[in-house]
Amino acid sequence: MTYNKKTIEDIDVAGRKVLVRCDFNVPLKDGVITSDKRIVGALPTIKYLLDKGAAVILCSHMGKPKGERNMKYTLAPVAARLTELLGQKVELAPDTIGPETKKMAAALKGGQALLLENTRFDKREEANDPEFAKELASMAEIFVNDAFGAAHRAHASTAGVAMYGGLPAVCGYLIQKEISVMGKALEDPARPFVAILGGAKVSDKIGVISNLLEKVDTLIIGGGMAYTFFRAMGNDVGTSICEYDKLDLARDMLAKAKERKVNLLLPVDNYIGREYKEDTIYMRIYSDSIPDGWMGLDIAEKTQELYAKSIAGAGTVVWNGPMGVSEWPHFAGGTEAVAKAVAESGAVSIVGGGDSVAAVEKLGYADRMTHVSTGGGASLEFLEGKDLPGISCLQDK
Ligand code: AMP
To answer: Is 204 a residue whose pLDDT tops 90?
Structure first.
C-alpha cells in the first residue's frame, strides 16, 4: 500500500480549531508514566500547530477500559507530562464529548492546547459510531491523525471523524514518517532488500511473510517461528514452540520462497533449554535439529554470523520480532547480534515490534536506524500490505 497523504504543512491551520488524534497509550505503573516516549514523539506535530496559532484539541485512547469510565486509565498523567514538556498548561477535559468538554473546546484560543479524556471511556469509540464521531468532529475544523499505533483500527477518533465528521483530514509528522519510510522500503527498496522476522508464532506473521516474499531478496527467520519451519522441513524440534497446525502454511511459504528465488535463511545452530524458564539449564547445539526433551530458545553464534553477513550487504533492512526469548539474558544474544548488525549495516533500516525495538533501544542503536516504528500491530499490517483505515481516510495530496 502506498500512501501520498496531505500533512499538517499542506493545510492552513492558523486560528483554526484542530482535533489531533495522538497515541498517548503510555505504560503506567501505579499511575506514574514509566516511559514518555510516545508523548515526546507527538511533540513535533503539536508544537508545529501551536506555533502556527492553531487551537489544539488532543485526543487519545489509553489501555482497555472497555467503554467504561475507569479512572485507572485516565489521561491525567499525560496532561501533566504534556504541560511540562510544552511549557504551557494543557488542561484535561472531564470526558471526550460531554457539554463541559465542548465548552472548554469552544473557549480554546489559538496557541492553546486541551486534552480530551480517554476516548475508550465511551464504547462508541471502538464501535466507530457515526454519531460519536460527528460529536467529536463538531468541536474542530480540521482533523489531524498522528496516531500510527492506532491507525490499523477504524475507531471513531482514528477514522470516524474523517469518515462521518466531514472534517478535512491530514496526517501529522509521525504518520507521515511511517508511511514515507515504510512505503518506500516496500515499493521501491534499495537492494538487496533483507527482511528479518522473528517472534513466537508463524500464525501471527503469515500475512507479513507472504507479502514480503514477493518483495525481498533475502528473508531471515528466527525466534520461535523458526521451529514451525524446521518441523515443516522434517527436522526434529523437541519441545520447542511449534504450531503443528501451521505446517502446511510453512511448507507453502518455503515453496513460495523457492519459486520467487528468495534466499530464505533459517538457524543452523541454536541455544536450547530444558524448560521454558529463565533459569533453565541450557546449551548450544551445532545443528538445526532439536533433541528430544529440549526446546530451542535462541539462535547461536554461527547463525548470528550468517545473519549478520547477509544484513551487512543489504540496501534495505526491515526487522520485526526477536530471534529468541530476548526477555531472558541467556537467550537475548541472537536478538542483540541482529540489532548490532542492522545498526552497522549502513542500510535503510526499519525496526518494528516491541521486543526488537526494546533490544535496539537497550543497546543504544535507535539513532542509527533509519526508522523505529511507533506502532506494533499497525506496522505489521502495513508490512502485510493491508490498508490502514486511520490513514486511508486522510486527504490525498
Ligand atoms: P511477537 O510478539 O510475535 O514478536 O513475539 C515475541 C515473543 O516471542 C517474545 O515474548 C519472545 O519471548 C517470544 N519468543 C521468541 N523466540 C522464542 C522461542 N524460541 N521460544 C519461545 N518463545 C519465543
So the answer is: no
Q: Which residue's CA is the closest to the ligand 1 atom numbered 12?
A: 325
> Phi first, then psi: what are they for 20, rounded to 5°?
-115, 120
pLDDT tens, position by position, 147-196: 999 999 999 999 999 999 999 999 999 999 999 999 999 999 999 999 99
Report, as residue numbers or ranges, the catalytic residues.
Answer: 38, 201, 354, 377
pLDDT at 99: 98
Q: Is the CB of 355 under 6 A from ligand 1?
A: yes
Q: Which fold has domain 8-174?
A: Rossmann fold (3.40.50)
Ligand 1 atom 2, closest CA: 199
Question: How far is it, in rounded angstroms, from Cα 7 to Cα 14?
Answer: 15
Confidence of residue 330 (pLDDT cuts 50, 70, 90): very high
- CATH T-level assignment (fold) for domain 181-383: Rossmann fold (3.40.50)
Cβ(199) – ligand 1 distance below 6 Å: yes
Domains of the chain, residue spans: 8-174, 181-383
CB 107 within 8 A of CB 163: no
Mutate to test the pocket of ligand 1, among 204, 241, 294, 328 (most ligand atoms within 8 A of CB): 241
The answer to whether domain 8-174 and domain 181-383 are alike in fold is yes
Q: What is the pLDDT of residue 354?
A: 86
Q: What is the pLDDT of residues 356-375, one digit of tens each?
A: 999 999 999 999 999 998 88
- Chain mean pLDDT for the chain: 96
Q: Which residue's alpha carbon is nearest to atom 10 within ligand 1? A: 325
CB contact set of 88 (below 8 Å; sequence gap of 6+): 50, 112, 113
Task: Give every CB contact of residue 55 below 8 A, 6+ residues apart in sequence.
Answer: 15, 16, 17, 18, 108, 109, 110, 111, 112, 113, 114
Identify residue 131 by its one-letter amino acid code: E
